[in-house]
Amino acid sequence: MTASAAILKQPPVSDSIRSFAFAARKLARELAPAGAGIETIPPALWLIISLLWERALRFDPDHGFWPDRDRFVVSSPRLLPLRLAFMRLAGWKDDERAASSDMPDVTDELYGLAGGLAGQAVASAAGMALAEKILARRFGHSLVDHRTWLVALPDDLHTGVALEAATLAGRFDLSRLTVIVAASSLQNTGRHASDEEETGQILGAFEASGWTTRCVKADDTAGMSAAIMAAQRSRRPSLIFCEPGPNHTQKTESLPPATVWDPTKRRGRAARRAWLRRLSHHAQRAEFERVVAGRQPARLNDDFQRGWTLNPATTMPKTDADLSLIGQGLNGRDILSGLLPELVTLTTGDFGQTSPRRRNDVRPEKAGHHTADRSYFCGHREPAMVGLMNGLALHGGLIPCGLAPLHSVDRMRPALRFAALAGQRLVCSLIESDPDLGACLWQQVEQLASLRAMPNLALFRPAGAREVAAAWISALAWRTGPSVIVFGRQSTLTTQPDTSDYRESDPIDDAETRNGPGCGGYVLEKPSAGDGIRDVTLIASGAEVEIVRQAKALLEQDGLQVALVSLPCWELFTRQDRAYRDLVLGDAPRVAIEAASGFGWERWLGNKGVFIGRDEFGATSVVDALFRNSGISPELIRERVIVLLDTALRTTDPVGGFHH
């Protein structure tokens, strides 16, 4: 059927559409926050969204969050009254989620994607469409067959993250994604040729990225209807741009009868009833309900530990890549990928285990005895990549995992902050940058502190194979926001001499090391005397642990009793009871070591502690030089500890000296 014939088959745009638009606008004005108003919402949106809701959108008002509903989201707080008004007119009630027991315990898309900065919503909407595609290939279109509709503002399209997301949406063939944009009402008067030229450039950029674009006039209802129908048939993502025009919403003072919205309600209810019938007979019903509810498979932790133990790369490393924390971290991701079909990896590059031949493949393919690879290659588009991960998490049914270099964290921060704000579970694995490739010019100073300061975010810095395994399990269990795991480049061979299998059911030798890394902090090495008496407690995480171990050996040669505490995750350690934290940290003076800013470390050091690290930039070329430039070498740590203890003893003991 040709497009013109399809348009002729559709009923003409009746007064009911305009009544729908007018009613939504009137209700939105009532719902808008005091002093906000709706004048900044482009007038053309009311009519095209009315057409969308009456003729295309699948929404059951009695079950507004059923899994196969169409996703209807907005990009800005300015558009929230519009979204809520149409949902209310369709019959949705605010108390529906609270009254329903089958709602997932995560932040839904009620507020759309309006919590992010301009352009972030485009990336997140693309992630929702990607989630639909992945789940449809796994469970079939009988269970997963919906679309994602994003209502955005022109400013969203002008951002770099939106253009990056457009490129990825075109690369991944996200044909069920449609973005609807209308020119701002402020552009209705005094519109210049430069505005049209800029709009043409943006549309051209989306077309070059593999999108289908259409421009419609604000008063061309037939063109709007045709554009929506074309988007439904398109094999590519679609962008509909509504140009400014006269406002033809009906000027009446009375609302139309409620029967005006009956077609929308009937279509949504019929779609859901048909879907429930298909679900009841589907062979994968139990698995589908599990992933939609966000439940982990039974005995996942035990299976992961078994896979970790049986994996030769983790138990009998033979190459430098296997010995590094990066290699161990990627092995852990591979093991989890084999156990969790819903784990989807987005990566910015080839970190040694992601084959370029499978970068865009969503089918589970075995990469080893315990691994399966579902990776999407995003290139150096970190803001868009994490934005897509937000969409995957908001959609539900998937666990997004991102792989990126550590020096890209500053570009990822806005999307990570949105994930923390929305309380979405996603895992970012940051790979320590290679100094030989010029990463030494970007220096880690304030990045770790800024991540730790972000609410709802858990930062992990494992120091050995055992801590890497615990970091993956703990990151999956962290459901209040994103998790970030930083993998260093140093060898794990000497950092963690204990290569025995770690399980939660292992006997606990003493309270100081209960569950080890799973608590976020524990005593890695006790004082050599074994009587529990400490002269000083050294605290570190990640790559610095090995340096601190060498410093501990030097201090013990001086006759001091030194405890080494590994603190891979502050957030988990904070959740432990006060008695355990005090037992691990001890009463002796504390010295924290980290090749980064000391901001935040004061919470663990107390009044008698000191921090050794870096608060300024400096020239470095290799990892060892990084530690030396930061004052982090075994000899320098020993000197600082001696000075600290000597000062403390002279303050409390006029005789001075060490009593050993």
TrEMBL record:
One of its GO terms (cellular component) is cytosol. It comes from the Bacteria. SMART domains: Transket_pyr. Residues 358-369 have a biased composition (Basic and acidic residues). One of its GO terms (biological process) is pentose-phosphate shunt. It catalyses: D-sedoheptulose 7-phosphate + D-glyceraldehyde 3-phosphate = aldehydo-D-ribose 5-phosphate + D-xylulose 5-phosphate. Residues 246-266, 350-369, 495-521 are annotated as: Disordered. Residues 330-495 form the Transketolase-like pyrimidine-binding domain. GO terms for molecular function: metal ion binding; transketolase activity. Pfam families: Transket_pyr (PF02779), Transketolase_C_1 (PF22613), Transketolase_N (PF00456). Its cofactor is thiamine diphosphate; Mg(2+). Keywords: Magnesium, Metal-binding, Thiamine pyrophosphate, Transferase. Gene3D superfamilies: 3.40.50.920, 3.40.50.970. Belongs to the transketolase family. This is Transketolase. The lineage of its organism: Bacteria, Pseudomonadati, Pseudomonadota, Alphaproteobacteria, Acetobacterales. The gene is tktA.
